[in-house]
Amino acid sequence: MASGGLQLLGFVMAFLGWIGIIISTAMPQWKMASYAGDNIVTAQALYEGLWMSCAMQSTGQIQCKVYDSLLKLEGSLQATRALMVASILLGLVGMFVAVTGMKCMKCMEDDQVKKMRMAVFGGVIFIISGLAALVATSWYGNRVARAFYDPFTPVNTRFEFGSALFIGWAASSLALLGGSFLCCSCPRRETSYPPTRGYPKNASSTGKDYV
Question: For this UniProt entry, which segments traverse the membrane (predicted)?
Fold first, then answer.
């Protein structure tokens, strides 16, 4: 029962992490314009994401523009896109595989060994998915930080971390923890020893040996 509860907890955490990765990928707030310079302009807020750039006016109106061409984008942005999309697809596969191996599901009840292996395999896929998202968000955040502290970057073109990065970091951590719990939910096999056979008691010796 303890392993079943750990398995369910791991699946819920991994599923929530996968949903967070999808939300982070779709959000345009991967980086936001910084107003740390002398000339503070609050008329609009600028955001940039993986798929579009947006400008929010002081009135609350948001205008977004999808990137025109994929070939004109930076290679690092394309790699970040690919990692996040791969993370989403891996999470989808891991979800179906883990559901098959869940103890609360009736499929594959005849072979409990294969059922447990499916749950562990689903956990491994979730771990890979979380690692892909963690690498993508950390890489993107590192680029934003390096450009911010670069003295050759103009003050009015500096960006800070957006909310999508923080959601991505939290979601990837959930996917990693959930996948780890799924891998640890498989109960260890106890070594079974053959039953000891009792030896018959020797008949009471009469003190005489018969040949």
Answer: 7-27, 79-99, 119-141, 161-184
